[in-house]
Amino acid sequence: MEKMKAIVVRKYGGPEVMTLEEIAVPEPGEDELLIRVHSCGVNPADWQIRSGKRHKLQEPFSYIPGFDFAGVVAATGQNVSSFQVGDAVYGGSGGTYAEYISCPANTLALKPASVNFLASVEGSTCNRDGLRTQRRISATTGSRPVHQLSDK
């Protein structure tokens, strides 16, 4: 079993409850991608969940914080054809304070070559919401969705 490092929270509290641990690299499901995380965002939701002020988790729990990320596809699930190993991507998924995450392919977009990994994370929440809206419009109108942002 391959291992990775991740920040894990096992009890409510301040930053001191976050521990660096070595855990198993997740396996992507058939409609998922395994992403090597290059950068991740730190959001108010992260400390709110960690402190117990938002989305109370049933104790005992093991939680990896983080939602926004940018990285490179390390592996694809058997049903994924829209991304390839080596593609630079960005998006949102739980557990991004880790070296790898596994997430649904339909929640990601290709990172424009002109945008670095850090800048991709800074705008990923807004971009993710826009991507969701675009996909909903495509589904209801029959128009072809755009899966890559312009480099211009």
In words, what does this structure look like?
Helix content is 21%, strand content 30%. The chain has 152 residues and is an alpha+beta fold. The protein has a single domain, classed as Quinone Oxidoreductase, Chain A, domain 1 (Alpha-Beta Complex), CATH 3.90.180. The strands form two sheets. The protein has a five-stranded antiparallel beta sheet. The longest helix is centred in the last third of the chain and has 18 residues. The radius of gyration is 16 Å and the shape is globular.
Rounded to the nearest angstrom, the radius of gyration is: 16 Å
Report on the biggest sheet. 5 strands, antiparallel
**DSSP helix count?**
3
Helicity level: 10-25%
Q: How many β-strand stretches?
A: 7
Low-confidence stretches: 144-152
User: Any idea what the shape is?
Assistant: globular
The average pLDDT score comes to: 84
What would CATH call the architecture?
Answer: Alpha-Beta Complex
Terminal residue distance: 42 Å
Secondary-structure map with pairings?
Elements: E1 3-9, E2 18-24, E3 32-40, H1 44-51, E4 68-76, E5 88-92, E6 100-104, E7 108-110, H2 117-122, H3 124-141
Antiparallel strand pairs: 1-2, 3-4, 3-6, 4-5, 5-7
Summarize the structure.
This protein has 152 residues and is of the alpha+beta class.
List keywords for this structure.
single chain, 152 residues, alpha+beta, Quinone Oxidoreductase, Chain A, domain 1, 5-stranded antiparallel sheet, two-stranded antiparallel sheet, 3 helices, 7 strands, 21% helix, disordered C terminus
